[in-house]
Amino acid sequence: MAGIELLPIPMATSDRIDIYSGVARMAGKVWGALHRADRPSRTVAMMVHPTSNFMGHYLLEPLAARGIDAVGFTTRYIGNDSALTMENCVLDVGAGIRYLRNLGYEKVVLVGNSGGGGLAALYQSQAESPTITHTPAGDPPDLTTADLSPADAIVQLMAHPGRAQVCGDWLDPAIRNEYDPFDRDPELDLFAPGRTLPLDPEFVARYRAAQLARNDRITQWAKDTLAELAAAGGELADLPFLVHGTTADPRFVDVTIDPSDRTPGTMWGPTEVANLMPASLGHNCSLRSWLSQWSVRESNGDGQRHLARISVPALIMYGTADQVCFPSYAQQMYDAVPHDDKLLVPVQGGTHYLKDQPEHVDFVADTVVSWLDEHGIKA
């Protein structure tokens, strides 16, 4: 491998303060780590996620070793999604792809890993035929006027279709009081004493309906509160809030639902603990951010809807032992792609980040490179 290069990528800043660091805001840059192959490559793969730091992504070195330059990319929201808007993430990805094309790359492959799957789908949809003129809260950016260069291919790797869908699938419906995670409805409590496995299908159906109802209640409260702030006429235009119980998908405890090779539990540990621990999914929000990334009804980040609008080749890979992104997520994304130039590939025994699974990392890298070669996109 020829080496690693830090990329300072100029990006369009927002008038709204949505990241805490003043240095980061004033710098007007997002960052990427470019791993170069030993020989010049005309193709580059860019790994994306709304918040994760992919500059150390496990696939960067393997792709470079196989002749494909690779970039681990970060958005402006690296490590903090509390005030994230998906539409700004699209601008950041656009800045990254534009930067890479200006470096001389002829082909750019967009790799959405984990939560990057929904972002990759949203980006490509809006780059090919933009429709989004504002966030769900009515704010900029207008993606129909943005400079978004379409990727030449999409890879979805251990990915899900979007943050709002995941929030809808994982939200704990037993919580009755948004300020008290221990005020619980025993009829909807996944962790209630005596709850047996496999879960009763009737319970699961009620549970799913209650999850959507809770997501909708939070959405309506966020919209009402924003309206109250606007009516007050002051400068305050957003508020933070806390969401308890964000990791309670029944599939975490019952592996017969959406069956796969996974073990029960989550990548953060036991489900009941992960459900409330601060470091798991989406506990810290703002009103505007909730509508953009977590609201099932309002978010623009519906990966299935956006994948249905893309024209480029799509490779979708999923781990059969993944505790985060289940086989049905991969199937949903595959089915959504409207053309036949798509491929669905299981990684047998693969976990979410292929930790301590070097043979699976090699399989993924080999599959990506051979697929690109078949499409004339290889270096």
From TrEMBL:
SUPFAM superfamilies the UniProt entry points to: alpha/beta-Hydrolases
Family matches, as InterPro entries: AB_hydrolase_fold, Hydrolase_4, MAG_DAG_Lipase
Protein name: Alpha/beta hydrolase
Keywords, in A-Z order: Hydrolase
Coiled-coil regions, chain positions: none
Pfam families to which the protein is assigned, alphabetical: Hydrolase_4
Domain Serine aminopeptidase S33: residue ranges: 304-354
Superkingdom of this protein's organism: Bacteria
PANTHER family xref list: PHOSPHOLIPASE-RELATED (PTHR11614)
GO molecular function: hydrolase activity
Region forming the signal peptide: none
